[in-house]
Amino acid sequence: MNRFIEIARARTRLERYGWPRLQMSVIVLVTGAAGLLASFLLLAGGLESMLLRYPLAVLIAYGVFLVQMAVWTRWGSDASDALDLTDLPTGRTGGGGWSGSGGHSGGGGASASWGPSSGSGSSSSSSGVDLLDGVDGDGLPLLVLIALVAVAVVCVIAAGWVVWTAPALMAELMVDAAIAGGLYKRMRGTQSEGWWWLCVRHTFWPLLGVLLFFVALGVAAKVYAPQATTLMQALQAL
Q1: What is residue 190's predicted lDDT score, i.e. its pLDDT?
Q2: Where are the alpha helices (DSSP H) in 80-194?
Q3: What pLDDT, on a 0 to 100 scale, did the predictor assign at position 21?
């Protein structure tokens, strides 16, 4: 039995009976919230450099994404009986459904999106929320608005890629878990790739794009507003 054929069959089952994109949307939201919280806690803990804090928050959020995918891979069969590998002509004799979110995408999954987090300056009198403390009654300055739009565009593109390609990633995770468990009797010679490697392989480029964006954002803030501890403070200092 060809591994790629089984992945295609599993994806068809997910798209027809499951909700992989809905599930991935929830995972992405949790990942983004984890990134915001991580940046806030790092700032509260004394890490004021945006050049270090923002990329580190991205990596922490990505770790949360991997944990969620591990949970989905391990416990997906207990979440729903809608998808059952016994329905696939693979020789499996055991049950267990898998849940996902519908769609018709091909290709691999992607990483979640993370924006700069909220935080308070520990060495200055400002204590507003990061990305929001520049808002006043007169509206957002043009430069602030442009920066917010840039962050939003990067996050939406990354999140959209993750959600749209979720069926492919989840289908491959299903098949790989079945191979690892010896459930495909006619694929006994096939080796499992491992859930973590599949997730990284599917989401590497979106992760790299988000990471490089926030690195560039931190570099620009350090050069033009070295005393700022939040993005809004940096924009106000220009």
Answers
A1: 60
A2: 142-164, 166-180
A3: 92
The dihedral region occupied by 131, where left means phi > 0, alpha psi between -120 and 50, and beta the remainder, is left
Nearest residue to 9 via CA among 223, 229, 187 = 187
User: Could you tell me if 47 and 60 are in contact, meaning their C-beta atoms sit under 8 angstroms apart?
Assistant: no
Report the alpha-carbon distance of residue 171 to residue 5 in Å, rounded. Answer: 11
- Higher-scoring residue by pLDDT: 141, 18: 18
Task: Compute φ and ψ for 97, nearest 5 degrees.
Answer: -95, 165
Contacts by residues 140-144 (CB-CB < 8 Å, ≥ 24 positions apart):
141/235, 143/235, 143/238, 144/232, 144/235, 144/236
Give long-range contacts, CB 8 A cutoff, 24+ apart: 4-7: 6/88, 6/90, 6/175, 6/184, 6/187, 7/168, 7/171, 7/172, 7/175
DSSP element (H, E) containing 202:
helix 195-224
Distance, in Å, from the CA atom of 28 to the CA atom of 201, rounded to the nearest integer, reads 17
Non-local CB neighbours of 181 within 8 Å, separated by 6+ positions: none
- Mean residue pLDDT of the chain comes to 74
H or E element, residue 77: helix 50-79
Q: What is the pLDDT of residue 119?
A: 42
pLDDT tens digits, one per residue of 113-128: 444 444 444 444 344 4
Radius of gyration of the chain (CA): 21
- Residue with tokens 């043009």, as numbered in its chain: 142
Q: Region 78-98: what's the mean pLDDT?
A: 41
Q: Rounded to two decimals, what is the model's pTM?
A: 0.69
